Amino acid sequence: MSQTMIDVRNLTAAYGSLTALNGVNLTVAKGEIFGLLGPNGAGKTTLLANVEGLHKPKQGEVHVGGISVQTDAAAAKRQLGIQLQKTALLDDLTVAELVEVYAALYEVYLTSKEIDALLARFDLVEKRNTLARRLSGGQQQRLALAVAIANDPQIVLLDEPTSALDPHARRAVWDVIRQLHDEGRTIVLTTHSMEEAEALCGRIAIIDRGQIVACDTPSALIANLQLNSMLKATVELPLEQVRTLPEVSNARYTGQHLEVETARPEVTLTALHELAARSGRSIRDVMLRQPNLEDVFLKLTGHALAESN
Ligand SMILES: Nc1ncnc2c1ncn2[C@@H]1O[C@H](COP(=O)(O)OP(=O)(O)O)[C@@H](O)[C@H]1O
Ligand SMILES: [Mg+2]
What we know:
With about 300 residues, this protein is α/β, with parallel strands linked by helices. It has helices spanning about 45-50, 75, 95-105, 110-120, 135-150, 165-180, 195-200, 220-225, 240, 265-280, 295-300; strands at about 5-15, 20-30, 35, 60-65, 65-70, 80-85, 155-160, 185-190, 205-210, 210-215, 230-235, 250-255, 255-260, 285-290. It is globular. Bound molecules: adenosine-5'-diphosphate (ADP) and magnesium ion (MG).
């Protein structure tokens, strides 16, 4: 059994009368990349804030590296590198100054050489004398990661490390996260992106309305629900009619794509063609895809993970 780095027990957290987390249990083992996947407002940031000791729970307990956050917050926190969701970097400092200042907050005093070595790992050496506020979004996120590990922590907590980044910058941040993992660090990240969770995380907790509704490897989450294949097509048809077609267990629209869950795709496709013909509609771009985490989320919670859907 590998070492438990984070242990959250029966955690309930509130803001006034609003319950943000309700009886959350969670353990993260050494060397994992663990993802908290859920929509906005699910409680991801609150959960991290309780692990970090920044928010006091109403009930329950959190241990970090075996140390209770409730009884010894300072010692628990020394093991953590933290990237907050809203990175309030002091943006009138240069990149190098920022890294120096943040490390010093943890009583780690870096030489200029050590700062350069750290920046090199995040592809920021050329920016060492640039003001933080002049960096691109992707560079700022990489700087936030550099700052998060300036104290050389065993555990790194990343709150939406790639939200609002373009695909290229996002991939660069993913590479950095994988690097931190390859060094043996334990990573916990939050995301509302299924792709990100699937690309990075060995295990995922699906969180919705303050509760963890499932926790497992991505493939086990998908396999355990025994979801059917998804038939995808571009066509405009009323959902209530599509749902009555043979073998269909569910149907929805994502953008203008119709997605139909079916036990027998060939039977459903024939019926779909007939329905479209009767309605004077044409069907384009038919494809079959395997179920993914988005489908798991929908099945478990009854609503979609991505708000745009
Ligand atoms: N400082 C706060 N004061 C009051 N309510 C808050 C505060 N922070 C978060 N909440 C509420 O708690 C719930 C969980 O929020 P949060 O943990 O930020 O979710 P997530 O990070 O998954 O988007 C939401 O309903 C949110 O509106
Ligand atoms: Mg959040």
